[in-house]
Write a structure and sequence with these properties.
Layout: E1 8-9, H1 16-20, H2 23-32, E2 36-38, E3 43-46, H3 49-57, E4 62-63, H4 71-76, H5 88-100, H6 102-123, E5 129-130, H7 131-148, H8 155-167, H9 174-190, H10 203-212, H11 221-249, H12 251-259, H13 264-274, E6 280-285, E7 289-291, E8 294-296, E9 301-305, H14 306-309, H15 344-359, E10 362-367, E11 371-374, E12 379-383, E13 385-391
Parallel strand pairs: 1-2, 3-9
Antiparallel strand pairs: 2-3, 4-6, 5-13, 6-9, 7-8, 10-13, 11-12
Enzyme class: oxidoreductase
Family: Belongs to the cytochrome P450 family.
EC number: 1.14.99.15
């Protein structure tokens, strides 16, 4: 099929209005076809569930060397874990894979649950609070900082750096360009660190140990440290804030969770499906490939629209309905196959702990006006005020 006759769209997915609510646009793209040419980006979007899953599975054809939607950042990210393919990807990922596996994190479960309980109890003593600042940010910041073992001097800047890490992975628009300086600042600061600056037996120290043992190159240490710290904070913060917002605005679904806390893991999967904290990443084709009858040439830039695939009615019944009884364990939010998110078990553990602590104490939330945080790649809130709440009678 020639480009003239291929499904195409003039939409810019990265303007403010669409970032604020991308789902109607996603529906239009899904209805247009399996692969839709985006004229403003000179790239192809994959908006449907099955095509996204197939592309994620076929890493040889859809290379992560095109993880960002611009060449400047793809060059910067060359050789990093998120922009590498096997075997290099597997070598880099293996450094922390054992520590991030569910079986390893079971030892942390009681401690993380206790810390979440303490934080939630403290926050609920206030007459009002902000979910983003007081819960969704405070908790992952504390947990990830301890696990990575970073010096305290990084704390004031880490959230800004993490946010910029995702912003620069979009097209090189004004949002990405303004974030580039923060990325340079982050790498410059992390570049001053050595093993001795990180807590003993921390994940950060394990990265440097891997270089000392010859398992990875020394120059891979700082990019690995940056990748795991940024992803471990920003996406989890967004997921927890999105979850509280959804449960507060869907009280019938919150009632189901509170009545049966055993469904919390499935309910959080529904949060991740319905409002994914990561909406898009790029891939670059390495060979001719056919998607939905369309031939994509080698070197084609492809947008993997996770947030759209999660709302595809070809795969999910009533996908625009938030339903905690759905059990969507196959959502696309954490990726799939080789490049599935390495830290997903930790993110779930943190979110389950915070939401579980809230479910024991809060029957209803009285929300103020939320403020949407706009980022080229992630979806979250910058503020979610709770003006009051109805306590749960125990």
């Amino acid at each position: 099929m020639t480009l003239t006759h291929a499904p195409h769209s003039d939409v810019d997915l990265f303007v403010d209005d669409i970032l604020y609510d991308p789902y109607p646009t996603y529906r239009e793209l899904r209805d247009a076809g399996s692969a839709v040419y985006l004229t403003q980006l000179d790239a192809w979007a994959l908006p449907r569930y099955d095509d996204i899953r197939s592309a994620l599975r076929d890493w040889k054809t859809f290379s992560s060397a095109g993880i960002a939607l611009n060449d400047v950042v793809n060059e910067i990210l060359t050789g990093t874990v998120i922009a590498a393919d096997p075997p290099e990807h597997d070598t880099l990922r293996s450094v922390l894979s054992d520590r991030l596996a569910p079986r390893a994190l079971r030892d942390l479960q009681n401690d993380i649950a206790a810390r979440a309980d303490t934080l939630v109890e403290t926050v609920l003593r206030k007459e009002s609070f902000d979910v983003v600042a007081d819960l969704a940010t405070a908790f992952p910041m504390a947990v990830v900082f301890d696990l990575i073992g970073l010096p305290e001097a990084a704390r004031p800047n880490m959230l800004r750096w993490a946010d910029a890490t995702f912003d620069v992975c979009g097209p090189l628009n004004a949002r990405a360009q303004s974030a580039l300086s923060a990325i340079g600042e982050m790498f410059d600061w992390l570049g001053t660190l050595d093993a001795k600056d990180l807590k003993p037996d921390s994940m950060g120290r394990a990265i440097f140990d891997a270089a000392d043992d010859g398992r990875i190159k020394r120059e891979s240490c700082i990019p690995l440290l940056a990748a795991y710290t940024s992803a471990g904070m920003d996406t989890t913060i967004n997921a927890i804030a999105n979850a509280v917002h959804l449960f507060a605005t869907h009280p019938d679904q919150w009632d189901l969770v509170c009545a049966d806390p055993s469904i919390l893991p499935a309910a959080f999967n529904e949060v991740l499906r319905y409002d994914a904290p990561v909406q898009v990443f790029g891939r670059r084709t390495t060979t001719d490939v056919t998607v939905g009858g369309l031939r994509l040439e080698p070197g084609t830039e492809v947008l993997i629209l996770y947030g759209s695939g999660n709302r595809d009615d070809r795969h999910y019944a009533e996908p625009d309905c938030f339903d905690v009884t759905r059990r969507p364990t196959d959502h696309l939010t954490f990726g799939y196959a080789t490049h599935a998110c390495a830290g997903q078990a930790l993110a779930k553990l943190e979110a389950h702990a915070v939401l579980g602590a809230l479910a024991k104490r809060v029957r209803r939330f009285e929300l103020g006006e939320p403020t949407r945080h706009l980022n080229n790649v992630t979806r979250g809130l910058s503020s979610l005020p709770v003006l009051g709440f109805e306590p749960r009678v125990r």
